[in-house]
UniProtKB/TrEMBL annotation:
Segments traversing the membrane: none
UniProt xrefs under SUPFAM superfamilies: NAD(P)-binding Rossmann-fold domains
Ketoreductase domain ranges (all copies): 6-185
Superkingdom classification of source: Bacteria
Protein name stated in the entry: SDR family oxidoreductase
Family matches, as Gene3D superfamilies: NAD(P)-binding Rossmann-like Domain
Organism: Pseudomaricurvus hydrocarbonicus
GO molecular function, a single term: oxidoreductase activity
InterPro entries: KR_dom, NAD(P)-bd_dom_sf, Sc_DH/Rdtase_CS, SDR_fam
Entry annotated with the keyword Oxidoreductase: yes
Length: 263
């Protein structure tokens, strides 16, 4: 898709990946509707973007009324590209997760993108060319200790995206699943960063992730995109030989336990 002149709704625009995405999208000539929870930082980001006509809206996506406000704005603005990027994560053994924490992970990472899609598909179908991009994760294909709820939400998002792509196959709405690997942003708290460094996990910069998403948007065929070649391989391996991945991850378990367990 040629993003020049397109109206893009970007959730999680105040986050690490979101800000980087906003910058490259605006530089490529897109008009952005930026959403996050706090008005001040969002407005600051909006003012620094190249181009004109960008909007910022502070909404808590877990709140139905707030969500409706965002949907109404996106409809009024004739949105053409929906990027479901807002997300939350928490390193924790599953038995330490409260019911509210589990529900919130599924809500923000899975239910909200599903609702935004259902509400905006009628508008997207009216456009000559439209796109839905759901930001998943490598952890949407490989279950990891210490991240069970997050993995569940992203596995769900991947399945949802695949279904929707098939449902809209005869339409002008292109549906893409985009899966970053570990990226240096605030979603990873100190415990997660310490664990990743102990495990030697590669860490991308948000600007690199944003560039990769731009190349996916520009291409016409990409349905799914996973960042990092060892991760791509691991995703394949996990689907055909999960026992091999079980054994590899079993070796990491003591390190995960030492960082994820509440002391
Ligand atoms: N960073 C990684 O390692 C990594 C790896 C793979 C996939 N991802 C995915 O990439 C996406 C972006 O993550 P990030 O790394 O940029 O994280 P981040 O810096 O923590 O940003 C998260 C964004 O989501 C927004 N958000 C969270 N809860 C919300 C709510 N209830 N209502 C509205 N907005 C809410 C945040 O808004 P506020 O500013 O108001 O908090 C923020 O803009 C997520 O879907 C994440 O799962 C990240």
């Amino acid at each position: 898709m040629d993003i020049q002149g397109k109206t893009v709704l970007l959730t999680g625009a105040s986050g690490g990946i979101g800000q980087a995405l906003a910058r490259v999208l605006a530089a490529a000539g897109a008009r952005l509707i930026l959403s996050g929870r706090k008005h001040e930082p969002l407005n600051g980001i909006r003012q620094e973007l190249p181009g004109e006509g960008h909007l910022a809206i502070a909404v808590d996506l877990s709140d139905e009324r707030d969500r409706q406000q965002l949907i109404t704005l996106a409809k009024d603005q004739n949105v053409e590209v929906l990027i479901n990027n807002a997300g939350i994560n928490q390193l924790s053994m599953h038995a330490d997760m409260s019911p509210a924490e589990i529900a919130s992970m599924i809500d923000i990472n899975l239910t909200v993108p599903m609702i935004l899609c259902s509400q905006l598909i009628p508008i997207l179908l009216q456009r000559q060319a439209a796109m839905i991009i759901n930001v998943g994760s490598i952890m949407g294909s490989i279950g990891m200790a210490g991240s069970a709820s997050y993995c569940a939400s992203k596995f769900g998002l991947r399945g949802f995206t695949e279904s929707l792509r098939r449902e809209l196959a005869d339409s002008t709405v292109r549906v893409v699943y985009f899966a970053p690997r570990m990226t240096s942003t605030a979603i990873n708290d100190d415990k997660m960063v310490a664990m990743n460094s102990a495990l030697g996990t590669a860490m991308d910069q948000p600007a690199e992730v944003a560039q990769q998403l731009m190349s996916v948007i520009a291409s016409h065929r990409r349905r799914e995109h996973y960042i990092g070649w060892p991760e791509k391989l691991f995703v394949r391996l996990n689907s055909v030989l999960p026992g091999v991945v079980d054994r590899a991850l079993r070796k990491q378990l003591p390190t995960v336990l030492s960082h994820a367990t509440h002391h």
